[in-house]
């Protein structure tokens, strides 16, 4: 090297040494900064991003469980079931709140959960009012039966016989019929029309009471007054049914609002989980770019400073070790992986571990959904799966313009079976019946456990005749199974009764109406001696 001015060898050496030292410091400084940035990204991944993803997944599962608990609360049909369901809802809300506090301690989520808890409390009050009104209606009907029996006994004992008295008895029976009809109406305008009919009948009863034998007029007027008080007074049966319909409507409205709250909360958490996933991908990409830059700096350092090779390798190993620990941590949070790519480097392994972790989360979510739609005892579809499938099949029936039938199935004298053989044998019997029904009807539609000893089947493209044939085949299949039942009043083996209803495409798709009609047909099968099938159209 030739310098433009005179410099001694000592100065030249010193200058070159100074340049080397400056370059060494510069390269070391840049390498140190890159390593700190890499360590910062790894620290963020290990301590923030991955725990946030795990918390988001757990929150989503808790939200799904909370949704199921609220659904059970709204379906409670007695105070004991309501208390159990409310306790389960409260537990799920508390678990969700604790999880949200651990994950983010977000005031907005806390306010959402507090609002949800207040709405559930209001819903519980509505359910209590509805159950109380239902009990009052049932008690009033019982009182009406006793009242009618007393009236008939008194008239028989009087030995009077006149046309006015006969007409009074006829209209008295019609009034009782209106009372039973009012307890099953579901529209307020229909109740108002029925109330007018009842008042007209009561006026007619007053007229016939005045035309009856003198010795019976006081007695008949008393019965008329008592009937008027029981039927059309402010505390009467019709008023109670009106109150029941109003509170039932408010209950449904509150239930839909709570469902919306839970859905909104779940959507927020799903969005947070999506954001965490996107952040993780971006941070991994940033980490990859930084490592590539660091490799370039290492190569440069190797070309310039052979003496720095050892230090650079040490730092490089530390980075790879942190990547390995991050990959192992991801794999430890997922299910064991069966295969391993021997050609993959550390970055590829990190991406593979992340993809495997995401797949595990999806599999767990799918298993949870499957469990929520399967009856744990009989291993067939449960009530929730049936409700969802019925909505889908009804919509399909409307589109393809084909009929759809529903079989509501009840095991005869099953309480006596449990009392005789015990509940463990009863569970085994339920499993056998479910298996027979699945084998008999499963190829034609969904078979589900409806609750207790009741089962239900959806038969798409089955009209009344085809559904009746499938019902008879089911009765015969259960008889052929020959499940011993010594306390049955029909045979020495288990038998079933069925109620059938068929939806025509020209009808409005109303699942609640269909199930009520199927239940009425089932009741008729039981009333006629059990071990038989009745179609709802046979009742019309």
From TrEMBL:
<feature type="transmembrane region" description="Helical">
    <location>
        <begin position="12"/>
        <end position="31"/>
    </location>
</feature>
<dbReference type="InterPro" id="IPR050469">
    <property type="entry name" value="Diguanylate_Cyclase"/>
</dbReference>
<dbReference type="GO" id="GO:1902201">
    <property type="term" value="P:negative regulation of bacterial-type flagellum-dependent cell motility"/>
</dbReference>
<dbReference type="GO" id="GO:0005886">
    <property type="term" value="C:plasma membrane"/>
</dbReference>
<dbReference type="Pfam" id="PF00990">
    <property type="entry name" value="GGDEF"/>
</dbReference>
<dbReference type="InterPro" id="IPR043128">
    <property type="entry name" value="Rev_trsase/Diguanyl_cyclase"/>
</dbReference>
<feature type="domain" description="GGDEF">
    <location>
        <begin position="402"/>
        <end position="538"/>
    </location>
</feature>
<feature type="transmembrane region" description="Helical">
    <location>
        <begin position="297"/>
        <end position="316"/>
    </location>
</feature>
<keyword id="KW-0812">Transmembrane</keyword>
<dbReference type="InterPro" id="IPR000160">
    <property type="entry name" value="GGDEF_dom"/>
</dbReference>
<keyword id="KW-0472">Membrane</keyword>
<dbReference type="GO" id="GO:0043709">
    <property type="term" value="P:cell adhesion involved in single-species biofilm formation"/>
</dbReference>
<dbReference type="GO" id="GO:0052621">
    <property type="term" value="F:diguanylate cyclase activity"/>
</dbReference>
<protein>
    <recommendedName>
        <fullName>diguanylate cyclase</fullName>
        <ecNumber>2.7.7.65</ecNumber>
    </recommendedName>
</protein>
<keyword id="KW-1133">Transmembrane helix</keyword>
<dbReference type="InterPro" id="IPR029787">
    <property type="entry name" value="Nucleotide_cyclase"/>
</dbReference>
